[in-house]
Amino acid sequence: MTAQDPRPLAGEPLSVDLLNTRWTDGAAAHDLLESTAGLAVWLDSPTVADALVGRDVRADRATLDALLAARSALAEAVESSDGPGAPAARAALNEVLAHGRLRLRLDADGPAQSVETDDAAWLPAWAAVRDWLRLLGDRPDRIRACAGPECVLHFYDTSKNGTRRWCSMAGCGNRAKASRHYARRRQD
Question: pTM surpassing 0.90?
Answer without folding.
Answer: no
